[in-house]
Amino acid sequence: MNTLRNKVQLIGNLGNNPEIINLENGSKLAKFSLATNENYKNADGEKVTNTEWHNLVAWNKTAEIVEKYLEKGKEIAIEGKLTSRSYDDKEGNKRYITEVVVNELLMLGAK
C-alpha cells in the first residue's frame, strides 16, 4: 500500500500548449494545465458541467514526449504525485502552488 500514499490519476484535456524550459544543468521541464470535467444534474434536473483545472509538470524524458506530441485541447491520461511549493511574487507576497508531477502519460483520442 505504500505506493498509494501520494498518487494522482487524471484524464482530461490540455488547457494550453505546454511551456518547455531547458535548464542549465541539461534537464528539461514541461509545464501545462489540464482540465477535468465532472457532470451532474442539479436540483432542477438540469445537466451541469463542473471543470477543474490542474497544474502539471513533467521532467526530462516525459517532458520530451510532452514537447513533441502534446498541444492545447489534446486528451491525455496521467499518473503522478501531488507537490506543493511557495514563492514570493514581485510585490513580495508569499504565493502557494500545488502541482501534479507527471510520472506516466498516455495520449488518448484521435491521432
Number of helices: 1
What is the domain total for the residues?
Answer: 1
Number of strands: 6
Straight-line distance between termini:
36 Å
Radius of gyration: 16 Å
Q: What is the global morphology?
A: globular
Order of helices and strands: EEEEHEE
Q: Helical amount among residues, as a percent range?
A: under 10%
- Can you give the mean pLDDT? 93
- CATH architecture name: Beta Barrel
Give the strand line-up of the largest sheet.
1-3-4-6-5
Which CATH class is shown? Mainly Beta
Structural class based on helices, strands and sheet pairing: mainly beta
CATH topology: OB fold (Dihydrolipoamide Acetyltransferase, E2P)
What does the largest sheet look like? 5 strands, mixed, barrel
What key phrases describe this protein's structure?
mainly beta, OB fold (Dihydrolipoamide Acetyltransferase, E2P), five-stranded mixed β-barrel, globular
